[in-house]
Structure formats: C-alpha cells, structure tokens
Amino acid sequence: MAQACGLGLLLALLLPLVGASMPGFVVRLNKATLKYVTDVGKVPFQRVLKVTVPYFLDQSQQRIQPIRVQILNVHVHNFQLNFVADFGVHLSAEANFNFRVLRVPESVTLTMPVILSADVQVTQGPIQTPLVSISDCNSTFGPISILDGSNNTSPKMLVHLQNHIETVLNNKLCLAISSLMQVINVHFGTLIGLKPVGPESQIRYTMVNAPTITNDYISLDINAMLFLLGKPIVLPLDATPFLLLERVGAKDAMTTLGLSQDLFDSAILLLQKAGSLNLEITGKLHSVNNQLNTSVLGQLIPEVTHQFPQPMPLVLKAKLGATPIASLAHNNATLQLQPLIEVLVAASNSDFRSLFSLNVMVTLSLQLSVSKVKLQGATKVLGDIGLTVASSNVGSFDTRKVHALVRNVFEKPLLDHLNALLGLGISLPSVANLYYLAPRVLVHDGYAVISSDLFYQC
User: Fold this and answer.
1) Looking at residue 289, what is its pLDDT?
2) CB 154 within 8 A of CB 57
3) Where do the structural domains in the chain lie, given as residue ranges?
4) CATH class for the region spanning 277-427
5) Exposed (0-12), middle (13-18) or buried (19+): which is 292, by Cβ within 10 Å?
C-alpha cells in the first residue's frame, strides 16, 4: 500500500469532493492540492519507476555475453500535475535514471534522462467509488552517458545498451504507473465502508455520478446515507439538489467541502430516532445545593408539599417529541429543541409518580469544527427557555414560579449531554489515512462550508 502514496495521494484526495447530493456534500479540490501532491509524492513516485531491467546480451564479443543491468536510482524533477477539463489529470515529469552495468572486466555506471507523460482518467466505478485509469502514456529518452569516467565501453555498445534500455522502459514504466492506479482503486474502496456514528448507527458515503472536471478543479458528488439498526434514515420530505457556488471558501485552501442543510436534517433525525437526545436528570436528596427535591419545589407549588410532606428526590425526564430544527444562516447555526420534561418524584418501592410535565422550547447556538476526519459540534443556550404546562397532577400553577428552578437544573445537564454527544463527531467522506488539516468552517444560508488543507499519511 506504500506505493499508493505520492501520485496516489492526488487521487485519494478526490474523495471528499464537488457536486449535488441528497443529502450530501459538495467539495472542490483546488489547484493547491496538486502542488502538495507533487511535493510529497516525488519520492514514492521515484520508487515506482525503479523497475527491473532484464539482462543485456552483449554481441560485441565473439561469444554472446549476458550482462546484468540494474537501475541504481531514479531522480525525478520538474514533476507536474494539471487538471484536464472533462477528463482527469495530466502527469508530466522529467527524471534521470542511473544504471549499473555489471560487465567483465569492469562495471560501468550510466545515466539517461527520461521525460514521462501520462493522462489519468477519473470516472465513476461500478461500486460507486472513483475509478482511475491510464488512457495514454509515453516516455521520451535522452542520450545515455557514462558517469564514472570509464573509457572501456565502446560507442557501439552504448548504442546497443540505449536501445535495450529504451525498449524495456518504454513498456515497463507505463505498466508500473498503470499498476499503481490499480492499487489506488483498491484504496478508493475504503470510501464506501460503513463508519460508526453511535453504538447502533452508521454512515455510508457513495459517489452519486461521474465527476465534474474543469481546468481549475475536480469535483465529485458524494451522497451520505445514515443508518439506524441497519435501516436507512429517510427525510420526511424529498431532499433538494445541493449546488455549491463557485466563490465560497478560502481561495488558498486545497479543498472546499460543502455540507447541505439536508445532511444536517438527516443527522438530527437519526439522533432523535436513536433516542440520543433524550435526557434524565436525577436529584440527590443529601447533596450540596441540590434543588431537585420536593421540599424546594413545594415552596413554589404548595400542593407538592401537601402530597409529599417529607423531602424526596425528584427526577426530570426530557424526551423529544418534535424533531429538532437546525437552522443555517450567515455566520450563524442554531439548533431548536422542543422536549417534553416530565417531573417525577421517587416514591416507595422504586415507583415514580408524575407531578407535572412541561413543554419546553430552547434555542442553542451550534459551533462547528473539524478534527481529522470528523465534523464536531458544541452548543450554548441562546436567550431564555420557554415553558408551558402540558399536564399536572398538582393542580394548576404559574410556570413563571418554576421557571428559574427548571432552568437552573435543566440547562447545564442538557449542555453537558449535547456537547459530549456532538463532540464524538460524525465522519466526513474520506479514505484511509486521509485527514483534514487546519480546517476553517463557515456557515452560509442553508449550508456550511469547510475550507481545509489535506494531509495524507502513508
């Protein structure tokens, strides 16, 4: 798999990439990526070009003598990658091949310049992952020359050696690059594997259609499908195509990843269906500053003291009925929750008695960030919470009397719970060993954008 580094890095970076998906991602891989690939990929690419050269049959003597020819090293310079509109990527490189010719009585060291050119086509594979292939490959050879100053090699033999090496390399270099493409295609298969979101939920990414390729970037439509207990999460309404504007994101970033509103809606629906957003808060009777007991509540609602004259711990069970609403506006992401909070008292024999239930409205700010390959979130309460009585077994009461108590005992556990949950993150589309580097997240109307460099760890 080490050979998949280098040139393969370029194509591995195509995976979190631009288009329209429902729900999904739109990402642009910009020209800055190509420069990074050529920098980090030169050494691995040199290793790929170090092919085996068969014996050369020296016919200059009376008896044909097989002579071993070995590539000592390959030094690649002027390594360039460029986008080709509606096709893929053009590779060009200049290299010096150094050979050792092991002949008797004296070995000789030779060098030969080679210019490589290859067109790498990027399409959609049968398993809905990127598929790369070589459509055209050429090698141009310069004259061979002696490095070690030996004068025992005849010009005629050098001509024969040149022809032998050119014949071998003309086929083998393109085969080596082509085999590298196959390794990369296997690597691409890691895109479609299920990635965990929670204990019982997963996410899977696939390509929606063939890539869109211009002279400035290459793009893919990546679709996200979330699963709960093996069943897909389907939005109540049909998702709409997501298109990313040309001039969003940082200009100097390697990649620009757009996250659709539908993706956020699908992820939140998953959390709701999994019960991950539900919360239970239990009061401890003898703890310091504990407000969750019948004695404190009875000061606000006398009927509670009448029914429970002795202090008893309370339990708050918050359960989401309505689906949470995520709103994405300019530089502002919010999450609106409408839980039903049931206030219960722990009676004898481990039974619970319901005192009353409240409809709660709470709006949270949502701060997005990226760590390696995961999108994470953190929340804070915006403004005040809204309360209305849903049911009561302690008679009628004014919600304003219990507002401060409910807010004090509910907000912090809610934030701790949500931040722990959102801090786990959800995997962004990627292949093995690919990470987002120095990401910047901006929120726009109806979508979010991640501008990031990329790091591929071999």
Assistant:
1) 65
2) no
3) 33-190, 277-427
4) alpha beta
5) buried
